[in-house]
């Protein structure tokens, strides 16, 4: 499972509907020669179907930015895992720090979402964790990562070839323009891997988990990350919003 790195482009709420489709079309045309990497695009909810239609016939996958934990019912404004599958999504981001900050999402909710996503076929949760600046400054990062993983994932049954992606995103690096040092990411990924080994056993971690990094990845710093141990890919925000920049980034990674 592990050979190809995965790059997930998180477009957040940064593009209008027209801009979203426009960028998707440009990517479809420009990325024809790209191989050796898996790419997924996470547009806003209401663009998913149209983006999926544009991407048809390419290897680029569709990713949602959020999901609710129930399947159907009176949950105004929410979208369920099975609906995302119907819309063509293969990935869904869960518990992004911006949702934790602005929508008060907590790890109990993230746990429910991850569980619900694993309950449908062909949808992979991308579970976000990461410390804030205060936690890093006061040397509590290792515990924070351990605790977030425990809260998000403990008790989940991971079966067969189900896949879970853990996205390590130090909150203070997101959108800051400066990624953390690759060695620091490598260390954090080691903590994540050890914690997951403890929770699920090495065999499941090796077969069913990927660990990716997110936070101000760009064309200049991507190379430093891509060859790290325990790094299976990246979650990219800002650098995926311009077709040329994103293409350059993918080329840096696949070289
Ligand atoms: P950024 O966003 O690359 O713009 O820092 C990453 C993310 O929020 O996932």
Automatic annotation (TrEMBL):
Subcellular location: Cytoplasm
One Pfam family of this chain: TIM
Keywords, alphabetical: Cytoplasm, Gluconeogenesis, Glycolysis, Isomerase
Listed EC numbers: 5.3.1.1
Cellular component annotations (GO), alphabetically ordered: cytosol
GO biological process terms held by the UniProt record: gluconeogenesis; glyceraldehyde-3-phosphate biosynthetic process; glycerol catabolic process; glycolytic process
Enzyme class per UniProt: isomerase
Pathway participation: Carbohydrate degradation; glycolysis; D-glyceraldehyde 3-phosphate from glycerone phosphate: step 1/1; Carbohydrate biosynthesis; gluconeogenesis
Signal peptide: none
Listed GO MF terms: triose-phosphate isomerase activity
Main location per the UniProt record: cytoplasm
Domain of life the protein comes from: Bacteria
Listed InterPro entries: Aldolase_TIM, TIM_sf, Triosephosphate_isomerase, Triosephosphate_isomerase_AS
Catalytic activity: D-glyceraldehyde 3-phosphate = dihydroxyacetone phosphate
PROSITE patterns: TIM_1 (PS00171), TIM_2 (PS51440)
Gene3D superfamilies: Aldolase class I (3.20.20.70)
Protein's UniProt keywords contain Isomerase: yes
Subunit structure: Homodimer.
PANTHER family, sorted: TRIOSEPHOSPHATE ISOMERASE
Family according to the record: Belongs to the triosephosphate isomerase family.
Protein name: Triosephosphate isomerase
């Amino acid at each position: 499972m592990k050979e190809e790195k995965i790059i997930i482009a998180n477009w957040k709420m940064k593009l209008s509907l027209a801009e979203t489709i426009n960028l998707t079309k440009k990517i479809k045309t420009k990325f024809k020669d790209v191989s050796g990497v898996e790419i997924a695009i996470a547009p806003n909810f209401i663009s998913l179907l149209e983006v999926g239609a544009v991407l048809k016939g390419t290897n680029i996958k569709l990713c949602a930015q959020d999901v609710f934990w129930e399947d159907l019912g009176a949950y105004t404004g929410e979208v369920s895992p099975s609906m995302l599958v119907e819309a063509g999504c293969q990935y869904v981001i869960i518990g992004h720090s911006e949702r934790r900050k602005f929508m008060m999402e907590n790890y109990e909710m993230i746990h429910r979402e991850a569980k619900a996503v694993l309950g449908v076929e062909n949808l992979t949760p991308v579970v976000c964790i990461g410390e804030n600046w205060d936690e890093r400054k006061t040397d509590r990062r290792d515990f924070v990562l351990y605790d977030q993983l425990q809260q998000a994932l403990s008790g989940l049954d991971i079966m067969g070839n189900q896949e879970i992606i853990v996205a390590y995103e130090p909150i203070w690096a997101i959108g800051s323009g400066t990624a953390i040092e690759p060695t620091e990411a490598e260390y954090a990924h080691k903590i994540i891997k050890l914690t997951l080994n403890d929770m699920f056993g090495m065999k499941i971690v090796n077969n069913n988990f990927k660990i990716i990094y997110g936070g101000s990845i760009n064309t200049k710093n991507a190379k430093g990350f891509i060859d790290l141990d325990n790094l299976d890919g990246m979650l990219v925000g800002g650098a995926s919003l311009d077709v040329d920049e994103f293409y350059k980034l993918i080329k840096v990674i696949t070289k």
